[in-house]
Amino acid sequence: MAEPCITLETSRLCCPLCGELLRNPATISCGHSFCTRCIHDRFDRDERKNRACSCPECGHEFPSRPEPIKNTALADLVRDMHRLDGKRKYSGPFMQTPKRAPRSCVETSTSSGSNLCVIHSRPLDIYCCTDEQIICALCPSAEHAGHTIGCVREERRRKQTELRDIQAKSKQILQEQEKKCKNMVKTLKQIQEEEGRETQDYCESVLAGIIDSLQRHYMSVRELIRGHEKEAAAQVQSSLQTLQVKMEEIKKRDAELDRLAQTDSDVHFLQNWPSMQRLCKKDHLHHLHEDSGDPLLPFESTKRAVNQLGKELEEVCDREFASLSQTVGDGGEQQESEEESEEDDMQQRCEASNTQSHGLSGVNNLTEHNVEPKTRAEFLQYACCLSLDPTTAHEDLVISAGDKVVRLSPSEFKSQAVRYPQRFSQRRQVLCREGLQAERCYYEIEVEGDKAEIALAYKGIDRKSFTQRSAFGANANSWSLDRSANYSVSHRADSIQLSTRPSQRRLGVYLNFKEGALSFYEVSDRMIFLYKMEAEFTEPLYPGFWLGEKCCISICDLTPDRLRT
Fold first, then answer.
1. Can you give the pTM of this predicted structure?
2. Which one of 57, 129, 256, 445 is most buried, by most CB atoms within 10 A?
């Protein structure tokens, strides 16, 4: 008798996630079963995406991650299936081949090239924005329950628009980079040509002219010294001849005096003595009135004058050549800053276009140019980032905390100070690296100590002089707020005493460069106005500080993160 054919629906014993026969089957609280590893991987993925754990089969969401329970019955049944499969190889009873459930519609459709869902045989016309997968209309009820769903055509249109925008921006950036590359090649060639022209045609000619001028003056000084030599030699020669004649006369006079002293006749002695006495007194009186001038004195005067001139020329050369090197360096920094500003402008244009495309609106700013800020929040809209420039600091000052803090240095460190040519050599002053010339700028500093000066100065302020030319607020190149027992403001050595006494450590400086206004404030829970200075600013202003004894000045960080903390 024929053995009966056993038909089993093995698809129910397959894991909905991997499509294989269940391995170590486990059941979750909604009643559906999966491979233990598959369901744990699914829950791990949900947690990484900050989503609630849900059943891949029915979409039920759990308030917390469920713990799958081992399903012994299913494990035994799967084991029996494997045993029956081994018997089929020899006895030949019919058993349906398990159907593998796909991992997702996207994976199976991509591998097969079909536009139909291999699970539901429906068109793939739905897009799951949460998982970024293409599915059919029946899939959301299973794995994609509760996800954000959209239309495939509409999603393609939106992403196509983003693609075109990115292509346009990339093309624009590429064109600008190509243009910049061509300009750099052209500039490189100009630099090489300019180097030869500057060195040969200009620098060498100018310096050669200076050397020729010094050579001419050198020859003039040599002629002057020769004139002194001839004049002094003639004077000494004449004096020597006169002295020799007088010496001969004195010798003769001494011989006559000897003969008179040795005469035996008293009458002869007395008769000749008066005339001899007068002659001797005349010689002695003439000797007392002789010129005692030093013939080497003109040489000493010339030597002192030449030494002084040499020192002054050396100082002028050191100062001017240092200024020349600094000017050239600033030109390179300015070019780099212009290139960076171009890139920043490009980035800002891209961000602005993205903001407009998504309909975003920024924070309400002070857009009316005639409205001045009143509150600290309004001032902070114009906050600028500053850092101290150690190459300008006097040797008594030490800079720390990322070039944000300056104080008087301990005495043992003074001898180790690097001798920068652009540092302040006579006054305990320092400048910032950044020059301010934006329409509006604001920064804050904190002062520890009794005496300090908070200033803004042009970069060309004198840094070597003992005089007021290098003192903040004492010349036309700087404006200063002096903080001691009382506040005072200074410019061109004109000082105005304020009635306000210092009450806060933090000070705010507000610069309206375009309008030519510089205002100082004390900063607490409100802005305390101190004074407003008005001037016509013709070049960038560099913040600077002078420090008294036991004084420390810190530049405040006004970034949003710092302000929140």
1. 0.39
2. 445
d(CA 112, CA 97): 20
Summarised one tens digit per residue, pLDDT across range 423-467 is 999 999 999 999 999 899 999 999 999 899 999 999 999 998 888
Please, what sign has the CA dihedral across residues 29, 35, 38, 40? positive
Cβ of 354: how many Cβ atoms within 10 Å?
Answer: 13
More reliable by pLDDT, 254 or 96: 254
Nearest to 463 by CA among 426, 409, 498: 426
Domain with CATH 2.60.120.920 in the chain: 376-564
Residue 498 token pair: 């304020």
The region, left, alpha or beta by phi > 0 then psi within -120 to 50, assigned to residue 449 is left
CATH 2.60.120.920 fits 376-564, yes or no: yes
The 10 Å Cβ neighbour count of residue 508 is 25
Longest dimension (CA), the chain: 201
Instruction: Tell me which CATH code domain 7-99 carries.
Output: 3.30.40.10
Q: How confident is the model at residue 208 (pLDDT cuts 50, 70, 90)?
A: confident
Q: CATH 3.30.40.10 region(s) of the chain? A: 7-99
Average pLDDT over residues 23-31: 91
Q: What DSSP line would sit under 321-357, residue for residue?
A: HHHHHHHHHHHHHHHHHHHHHHHHHHHHHHHHHHHHH
Give the rounded distance of the alpha carbon of 403 from its chain centre: 10
Query: Tens of pLDDT along 148-177?
Result: 888 888 888 888 898 999 999 999 999 999
